[in-house]
Every structure is written in C-alpha cells, then in structure tokens.
Amino acid sequence: MARIGFVGLGNMGGGMAANLAKAGHDVHAFDLSADALERAVAAGCRAAGSAAAAGEGAEAIVTMLPAGKHVAQVYHDSVFGQAPASALLIDCSTIDVATAKQVAAEAAARGYAAVDAPVSGGIAAANAGTLTFMVGGSDEAFGRAKVFLDTMGKAVIHAGASGAGQAAKICNNMVLGAEMIATCEAFLLADKLGLDPQKFFDIASVSSGQSWSLTSYAPWPGVGPETPADRDYQGGFATALMLKDLRLAMEAASSVGADTPMGAKAKELYEAFDQEGNGGLDFSAIIRTL
Ligand code: NAD
User: Fold this and answer.
1) How many domains does the chain fold into?
2) How far is the CA of 18 from the centre of ligand 1 (A)?
3) Could you list the residue range(s) of the whole structural domain that residue 263 is in?
4) CA–CA separation, 172 vs 184, rounded Å?
5) Is the distance from CB of 28 to CB of 45 less than 8 angstroms?
6) At 85, is the secondary structure helix, strand, or coil?
7) pTM of the shown model
8) Using a 6 Å CB cutoff, which residues line ligand 1?
C-alpha cells in the first residue's frame, strides 16, 4: 500500500480520500478548512499540517481543488521541489485546459510524472467510489495513476496527452448543459400541447430523443427515476458548477477557434439563471425559467 498526499477535501475530495484510506493506503491529507480535515481524519486519513507536509515522502499526490489558479498555486508553493521527484502528480480538479497543460509541462521539466484526471459523477459517486476518470498524460503516467484511480472510480479512461482529460470533461459537460436545456424545453412544450409528461417520457426515452438528461435525470418531477426534480431541485449538480464548466468550454473553444453556438447559448442561459440567485440549485432547475 502506498503513501499518498491528498490536497482538497471538499465535497468531492473528502469521499475520494476516504476511499483511498479504506483501501489501505496511508493517506496524508490537507485542506485549508479545519472542518474538512477533521472529516477526512474521521474517515481514516492522517492530518497533514500543510500541502507540502501532505506530499512529504509520497508515492502519489492527488489534488481536488476548485479551479486552475488553486492547482497552480499548490503545485508551485507546495509540490515542486518539495515532494520526492518520484512522486506521481494526479490532479482530479476540473480546470482550464491551458493551466492543465502548463502545470504538466512544469512538472515534467522538474522530473515529475503528472496526469490531469477530472471526474464525472458528482458527490454520491465520489463517496461510493464509482466516479468516471478521464485522464491526460503519458502511457506510463496513466498506468501508474490507474492503480489509484481504480480505487475511487468505476471507469478510468486514458483520453490522450496532458490536457486531454480536461478537454474530455468540458466537451462532455457542454453536451450535458445543452442537452438538459433541450430536454426541459421539450417537457414544457409537451405539457403546453396537452401531452402528459409521463407519456412524453415513455415515448422519447425509447425514441431518438433519448438522452441521459431525459432517462437518468429527468427535470420534470415524478417522471423517470428519482432525481433532484423530485426534491425541489436540491442536491445533485449545482448550477454554479455547470456554469463553471460551460465557461471553461467557451474559453477553450475560443482559444482554438471552434464554433460552439449551442454551448454558447447554454452558457448564456445558465449565466442568467445563476445571476437570479439559483447557483445552488441543481442544474435541471433551469426548467423553472424557460
Ligand atoms: P469544494 O469547494 O467542496 O472543495 C474544494 C476544497 O479545496 C475546499 O475544501 C477548499 O477548502 C480546498 N482548498 C482550496 N484551496 C486550497 C489550498 N490552497 N490548499 C488546500 N485546500 C484548498 O469543491 P468540490 O465540489 O469538491 O469540487 C472540487 C473539484 O471537482 C472542482 O474543480 C469541481 O469543478 C470538480 N467537480 C465537482 C463535482 C461536484 O458535483 N461537486 C463534480 C465533478 C467535478
């Protein structure tokens, strides 16, 4: 079993670090929040006094932080030159592709192997160890990372070179944002046309309108499996996080000159929904404003 440094024990990182500890790894954990650190200790991790201390003598260092600036700061201040050169750096945060590539290049220049390994699945999957990991990095670094990621996920996929994991994540979530809005529109139109929403669900879920937003995450209460719509849109995947991912997708699209009109419209609609004070509601709650 390995000594692992884990930095960022929030909604997602807390469950992920706990699963590594449960599998028998010696997890030295750090978070700026004392409460988050306390919860990680209760779940079997050891408390480190700083991010640098978490990485001391580590075979791998996992980061699960809010955004690119946090990852760059932790790598620069606490990992580079301080963690053993043999340590594998695994960043599971969702961050911009440019920063992911930049920190991977800086890591390589200092002799560290590094991967970007963002996740799909949310808090329940982080706790259950059933995340999907999309991984960017060399074959060798992927092989080393997979051993640890398998403990926290149900699917670990090598997306390509550094930054490819983040590219996969934002492309996936751009589809999800646009698809959710289209699904909401269809439910509302069906209802206005006098079609029973349950009948619309029964038909579209076995027709060409089928999608994850419809069959696994229906935004209409009482239809399909239980979803945040059945809990007044509490819990689930917050609108603010969907907006973050759509902004990252639009930034990336403009950096390479890709035309993404549907993604841009989804971002615009989620921005308006967020500005009305709905950032904490599940992203399917956008049905309320359409
Ligand atoms: P969170 O805000 O709950 O957790 C982030 C943690 O990082 C916090 O506990 C914070 O104190 C800590 N932190 C910030 N800066 C730090 C530093 N310099 N040193 C140590 N700790 C520091 O966020 P989350 O929901 O756990 O999300 C983490 C990442 O996962 C984000 O990039 C998010 O986009 C992504 N993600 C989240 C979900 C979700 O459903 N919550 C799903 C998929 C991906």
Assistant:
1) 2
2) 15
3) 167-289
4) 18
5) yes
6) coil
7) 0.94
8) 7-13, 30-33, 36, 51, 64-66, 70, 73-74, 93-94, 119, 122-123, 237, 241, 244
Q: Is the ipTM of this complex over 0.90?
A: yes
Among the residues of 44-128, which ranges form H helices?
Answer: 51-55, 68-74, 97-109, 122-128
Which residue's alpha carbon is nearest to atom 8 within ligand 1?
10
The CATH number that applies at residue 15 is 3.40.50.720
Q: What is the domain-level CATH number for residue 211?
A: 1.10.1040.10
Q: Is 91 helix (H, G, I), strand (E, B) or coil?
A: strand
Note whether 22 and 154 are same-domain residues: yes
Catalytic residue ranges = 169
Both 131 and 178 in one domain: the answer is no
Same domain, 12 and 59: yes
The single-letter code of the amino acid at 286 is I
**Tens digit of pLDDT for each residue in 250-262?**
999 999 999 999 9
Rounded to the nearest angstrom, the distance between the alpha carbon of 126 and the centre of ligand 1 is 12
